[in-house]
Amino acid sequence: MEKKVKALSHLYVTVFLSGFASFIVVPAITDVTMSALCPGTDECSLAIYLSGFQQAVIGVGTALMMPLIGNLSDQYGRKSLLTLPMTLSIIPFAVLACSTATNYFYAYYTLRTLTAMISEGSINCLALAYLADNISDTQRASAFGILAGISSGAFVFATLAARFLSAGSTFQVATFVSMLAVVYMRIFLEESIPDRNDSMTQPILKETEGVIQKDGNVDTRKMPVFKTIPSLKDIIRLIKSSPSFSQAAIVAFFQSLAEGGMICSIMYYLKARFHFNKNQFADLMLIAGIISTVSQLFIMPLLVSPIGDGRLLSIGLLVSCLNSIFNSLAWSAWVPYATTALSIVMVFTTPSLRSIISKQVGTTEQGKAQGCISGVTSLANIIAPLIFSPLTALFLSEEAPFHFPGFSILCIAITLMIAFIQSLTIGKTPSNSRDENCSNSMEV
Asked: Which residues contact 83 (CB under 8 A, 6 or more apart)?
């Protein structure tokens, strides 16, 4: 028990440091992009299109890489696979740490696009699989919520730091902290490799032809090893392995489609609508981050048992939809600040969804399952900028067919409503995973 608590504490520190490095640059990147591409203006279609294109390309890469990385972690361990994305994420930060001039921005843009195809989402995916290795399925929703709370805490501290740093200093700090995260992870985090001798857990994607004995038991010694690179057929088979998995995958797609649309729209919308700058973006993120951290660390663990992760998912999606509607109709600069209070419920969505997914597979397939869903969300991130970036640019320009600057945000609300309606079909999520030894689980 003490050993596992220590292992998870090192995982939390790793996630915190990595998240801090990623989040600290978020408030500054919009101003840096606008300054490099369209200096002296509050509206820049080129910046919106380039950001959307980058997001789409990254989505293509992650859609291909996430299932592979997840499967490799099942084979070779979570720590081994964490090293690659964490190391790659350092490179783009280091470029803008040198200078934020236009030429350096284009170098950052190129390197960020290439490295994020591997690193984007990988750390979270592998961290979830690491937790699933060490937490019983009855406690996973709370554990995933705590992990999300750690990320939100990193977001709060990073945003607070960004509030008082210049753009150049922000990227210097991000470079240092991301390097520190890699060093800490390599020194302190223990390797976690699923026990493949666990006969109680039968992997979904392994073929069992010719290995069923006369007494009905499965001889695991004769089971062929799942190939390293999962094919599309393997992924589809995994998604169809249970009705709850299929439904959760659909919810993940539409929720990520909306989230991707919000990423490529909201900051440019607020900048054009209310002339927000880096400091105001940081203030918004700081308020939302504090609320999210408190909710995920303290409120969500109390609600999981009496309410269930399925209902928490639906509640989070419904409130997220309302949040988008309010922002699309924002009539004053205080409205985006007021809607951040809804983050207390909105943050239930992702941990609940990941918990539902985790319960549908055995202990040796947590990496495959989380990687598969990350691939689905990445596919949504490919499509999101193709839809919402042109929509945002159109309705923020003088050529808009009618005056509604927040029309793209309203479309995001409609997407979230689709995800909410689909989430209602999941119901109570049965668990397909079984723990051979109860001593291998721990309470959060």
From this structure: 182, 185, 186
The alpha carbon of residue 412 and the mean position of all alpha carbons in its chain are separated, in whole angstroms, by: 18
Return the CATH number at 186: 1.20.1250.20
Q: How many domains does the chain have?
A: 1
Per-position DSSP letters for 50-108, written without gaps between them: HHHHHHHHHHHHHHHHHHHHHHHHHHH-HHHHHHHHHHHTHHHHHHHHH--SHHHHHHH
Q: Is residue 197 part of a domain?
A: no
Question: How far apart, in whole angstroms, are the C-alpha atoms of residue 128 and residue 292?
Answer: 18
Q: 251-303: per-residue pLDDT in tens?
A: 999 999 999 899 888 888 998 888 887 778 878 888 888 999 899 989 998 89
Contact 249, 380 (CB under 8 A): no
**Average pLDDT in the 379-388 region?**
86
Count Cβ neighbours within 10 Å for each residue of 246-277 and write b for 16 or more, e otherwise: bbbbbbbbbbbbbbbbbbbbbbbbbbbbbebe
Top-confidence range, 7-16, 160-169, 189-198, 360-369: 7-16
Q: In terms of residue numbers, what domain contains 322?
A: 2-192+230-430
Is the per-residue pLDDT at 54 higher than 70?
yes
Q: What CA–CA distance (Å, rounded) separates 33 from 102?
A: 9
* Domain assignment present for 440: no
**Closest Cα to residue 18, out of 212, 182, 234?**
182
C-alpha closest to that of 387 among 422, 359, 413, 412: 412
- Percentage of the chain exceeding pLDDT 70: 84
Residues in the chain: 444
In a domain, 215, yes or no: no
Neighbours of 189 (CB within 10 A): 20
Q: What angle do CA 171, 175, 176 make, to 5 degrees?
A: 120
Closest CA to 140 of 421, 433, 377: 433
CA distance 346 to 289: 12
Over residues 324-383, the pLDDT tens digits come to 999 999 988 899 999 999 999 999 999 999 999 988 887 778 888 888 898 888 888 788
- Whether 441 maps to a domain, the answer reads no
CB contact set of 179 (below 8 Å; sequence gap of 6+)? 90
> Among 443, 142, 129, 152, which residue's Cα sits nearest to residue 307?
142
pLDDT tens-digit series, residues 90-138: 999 999 999 888 899 999 999 999 999 998 888 999 999 999 888 887 7
Q: What is the pLDDT of residue 436?
A: 38
